[in-house]
TrEMBL record:
Residues 1-30 form the signal peptide. This is Membrane protein. The chain crosses the membrane at residues 237-260, 281-302, 322-342, 354-373. Keywords: Membrane, Signal, Transmembrane, Transmembrane helix. It comes from Rhodopirellula sallentina SM41.
């Protein structure tokens, strides 16, 4: 009985081992290799209108339709052989994608099965690596291909912007002394950069697309520089201007409370009327000073990007500081001059008092806002 039981257990284990080996061999044989494993039987297709593609020193106009197969790829219907380019950096050098030896699935401790085929070297089509890099065209990348050279991927946000500027400049004449950015470190990329610039022919489609992108980048750079300069100015004048405005608000509140009743009543006493006239002049001075503070803070806040002008008229002028300053000074001067000329009239005195009150509240709002940053 013991012999029969032992043979039975041994037979079951042997059968299980045979079934396991058979299933593993089926899985190994079913795994696709090379390009098929990466992208399937139909290969990979990239369609995009973004980015810039240069092949052998020539700009390829967008939109792009790039198809990859086993040993070639097509760009807008034009075939290119994989052997024409140096794709060695995409070739897997043993041990799978990460160069590690896969662990065997033995019964104990991970030993290999007998007869298991070594997986130290995994077949990998370099075109799949090229396809991954060329897919970055969807994100605005610049891809440069040249025969017998490794492909080069450049981002416009880095030194690709300089490359486009240099290529656009070739429209005015050939460039012989090429300056390669320090960020381009490898000898192959430096040579590829130089060869592209020296032999490049700037076509109309390229100039149109690159010019649009360069203008956008210049606009962004100009805006950033203006905001940085305004931020530095705000840091320099923030504290003294806030203190001055705070003192001005305190003085204005006291002045308005002192002459509120007398300004809004009909006074027949000559001495009192002279006092009210003087208070009206003081109110106009306060209005002028607060208008200047409001103008400075408005310009600085707009330049730093911390404020949006809600005044429909001011929003049209604020993009040009000179126009806004001219408009503000002209309107404020005319208003103050008119109220000063009519200061003996009760209506003009009341209008001056209310203008001073509005400017006081506005300045108090500015003081509250800037007190958070000084």
């Amino acid at each position: 009985m013991k012999t029969y039981s032992f043979c039975r257990r041994f037979g079951l284990r042997a059968a299980a081992a045979i079934l396991l080996l058979a299933s593993m061999s089926v899985v190994v044989q079913a795994q696709p290799r090379g390009f098929d494993r990466e992208f399937g039987d139909s290969g990979r297709l990239i369609e995009t209108e973004e980015g810039f593609l240069f092949v052998d020193g020539v700009y390829v106009p967008s939109p792009y339709k790039i198809e990859f197969e086993e040993d070639l790829f097509r760009i807008n219907g034009q075939e290119y052989s994989a052997s024409s380019y140096d794709l060695t950096r995409y070739v897997n050098r043993g041990g799978g994608m990460r160069g590690r030896r896969p662990r065997g699935m033995g019964f104990r401790g991970g030993e290999r099965f007998r007869g298991e085929r070594s997986q130290d070297v995994t077949e990998y089509n370099p075109l799949s690596g090229l396809a991954r890099e060329m897919a970055y065209l969807n994100h605005g990348a610049i891809v440069i291909l040249k025969s017998d050279m490794p492909p080069m991927l450049v981002w416009p946000g880095q030194h690709g912007y300089e490359l486009l500027q240099t290529l656009v400049a070739t429209a005015d004449g050939p460039i012989e002394d090429v300056e390669v950015p320090r960020a381009v470190t490898t000898v192959e990329d430096q040579q590829l950069w130089t060869d592209l610039v020296v032999g490049f022919d700037a076509t109309e489609p390229f100039l149109a697309r690159a010019g649009t992108l360069i203008n956008e980048m210049n606009s962004i750079e100009t805006t950033a520089e203006r905001q940085h300069a305004a931020q530095r100015l705000s840091e320099q004048i923030g504290y003294p201007l806030t203190v001055f405005a705070l003192v001005l608000v305190v003085v204005a509140v006291g002045h308005l409370l002192t002459y509120a009743q007398a300004t809004n009543l009909q006074i027949d006493d000559p001495k009192m009327r002279e006092t009210i006239k003087k208070s009206t002049v003081i109110s106009l001075v306060i209005v002028g000073l607060m208008s200047a503070v409001d103008l400075v803070w408005t310009l600085v806040a707009h330049q730093t990007g911390t404020m949006r002008e809600m005044n429909p008229l001011g929003s049209r002028l604020i993009s040009d500081p000179l126009q806004l300053i001219t408009f503000k000074v002209l309107i404020t001067s005319l208003s103050i001059g008119l109220l000063f000329w009519l200061r003996e009239l009760p209506f003009a005195r009341r209008a001056t008092w209310w203008c001073c009150l509005v400017l006081t509240l506005l300045t108090a709002r500015w003081v509250t806002f800037h007190s958070l940053f000084v």
